């Protein structure tokens, strides 16, 4: 039996993952802004540092895995844009950076970052916002989306998920991660019926958009369905999965991008990747 840390554990997909892991007999350390073993606000630097330290103390320096599910959806509200950037990006990157040594101790740890299919289905996301988040600068990302009017929350949300997905893919392959036995992957859900989605459906303007969003298989996902994929990615079945993005979205990504992927690596980039892999750049 293993010891797992789950953020966003109080609700939705995170809560469903906690229930499954506990039912299987694992020890789960829950992290959330409410109703958790570790109550912390992941939108603040102090909250993230405190959450990371409390989990490390509780697991005695060894983690078999983690699910980073805490997040805010693209709804409107005071300070919402900043919270989206801080929780969805820094709330993943800061914790995982601090937990990496404990994950390495387990030797075959698995990590699931919850991304989103908004990464590939939201048009015209400003790259400047993505780059700002990857640099850890939420204020600069806010400036990059400021001209998008009522589309600002959707832009900030997609930018936060693109940034965290890119961070995960860049990080997963590094010697300190892949080479330390850690398998870091991204689960990209489509619309899943949780309080986060309900918040959007409760807003007339957003509901129109969500309800019209094309889902080839129809309907919404259920949190437990996604939790099953999280548990799969935490299992030995993921030993050879590294830096992958798994879309569980009823087919929307395939519908929007059927011909975009797979795409061969451009010749001019091969040297860069090989040098990076060999540690010479
Ligand atoms: P949810 O609202 O049910 O759960 C999110 C959890 O994050 C809540 O328990 C909440 O308290 C916690 N949280 C929010 N702000 C926090 C903070 N500052 N500090 C600590 N915890 C905080 O939503 P969900 O749908 O289960 O979302 C889980 C993840 O899935 C999120 O990252 C979300 O972006 C992503 N996602 C959701 C959908 C969807 O349709 N539901 C689609 C794609 C991706």
From TrEMBL:
Transmembrane segments: none annotated. Gene3D superfamilies: NAD(P)-binding Rossmann-like Domain. The keyword Oxidoreductase applies. One of its GO terms (molecular function) is oxidoreductase activity, acting on NAD(P)H, oxygen as acceptor. The keyword Protein biosynthesis does not apply. Keywords: Oxidoreductase. Belongs to the short-chain dehydrogenases/reductases (SDR) family. This is NAD-dependent epimerase.
């Amino acid at each position: 039996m293993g010891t797992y840390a789950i953020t966003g554990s109080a609700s939705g997909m995170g809560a469903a993952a906690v229930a499954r892991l506990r039912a299987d007999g694992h020890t789960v350390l829950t992290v959330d802004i409410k109703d958790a073993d570790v109550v912390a606000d992941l939108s603040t630097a102090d909250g993230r540092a405190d959450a990371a330290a409390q989990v490390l103390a509780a697991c005695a320096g060894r983690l078999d895995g983690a699910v980073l599910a805490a997040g805010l959806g693209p709804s409107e509200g005071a300070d919402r844009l900043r919270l989206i950037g801080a929780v969805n990006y820094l709330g993943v990157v800061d914790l995982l950076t601090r937990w990496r040594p404990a994950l390495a101790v387990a030797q075959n740890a698995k990590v699931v970052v919850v991304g989103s299919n908004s990464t590939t289905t939201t048009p015209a996301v400003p790259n400047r916002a993505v780059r700002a988040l990857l640099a850890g600068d939420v204020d600069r990302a806010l400036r990059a989306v400021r001209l998008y009017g009522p589309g600002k929350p959707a832009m900030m949300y997609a930018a936060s998920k693109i940034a965290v997905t890119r961070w995960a893919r860049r990080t997963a392959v590094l010697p300190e991660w892949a080479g330390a036995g850690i398998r870091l992957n991204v689960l990209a859900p489509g619309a899943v019926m949780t309080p986060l989605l309900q918040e959007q459906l409760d807003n007339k303007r957003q509901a129109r958009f969500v309800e019209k969003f094309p889902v080839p298989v129809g309907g919404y996902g259920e949190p437990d369905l996604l939790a099953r994929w999280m548990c799969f990615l935490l299992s030995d079945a993921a030993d050879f999965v590294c830096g992958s993005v798994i879309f569980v979205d009823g087919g929307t990504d395939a519908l929007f991008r059927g011909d975009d992927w797979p795409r061969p690596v451009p010749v001019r980039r091969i040297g860069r990747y090989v040098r990076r892999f060999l540690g010479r750049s």
